[in-house]
Amino acid sequence: MHLQGRKKTLNLWGPAGLREIVSVQLKFSQTILNFPIYFSELDEESGVIYQNNFMTITSFRLNHRIPCFGFLFKEKKKPRRLKKEKLPAWLQAKEFRQLKNGKDLTDPDGKIIKNTTLTDPPRKSRSYAYCSDTRYMPELTSVIANCDILYHEATFLHENMEWAESTFHSTTVEAATLAKNAKAGKLLIGHFSARYKDLSPFLEEARPVFESTELAIEGRTYSVDE
Prior knowledge:
By secondary structure, the chain is α/β, with parallel strands linked by helices. 19% of the residues lie in helices and 24% in strands.
């Protein structure tokens, strides 16, 4: 970002110690950034850490050897879509806002115009849950319920479940089970242990539990339809 000329403040959220980790790297690499960094430390409780007019971001505690957090990104309810070919010529900015908010209109003659005659339902509000390093946590089912895409680490194949437990990681089957119980739209699994040279067994294990599973491959784009 520095080399690309960023000037705008960068906001970073993470566990206590994040500021020190980043600052020491910049100090000993003698890096002076063109932009300021604002650090926000996350606490134990889940909660909204950021929101604007379009989305909210919620953090939640994961179960790892060191403090680690997951994030849920959710679009807010979108406005209704105007049927441009049916809009009366007398509409002003106020009426446009009313229509997008789902309200009926009253025309200049006092006649009520139903909102549904001039608008279509809003596009789908999408959501994405990100669960990095963590043991399997069935209690997250309600936190990420019905997310469109769930990224969940699957460091180990399920035959190494005890190893996953002892190192505070998850297996393919555990990630797929969480996706199934949370009724996710799609599951992306990643954070594979370097001991596995062939990743196809990860899909072979996960898909019988949750069919819509993909490997999270660096540089690949995954889309969510509205």
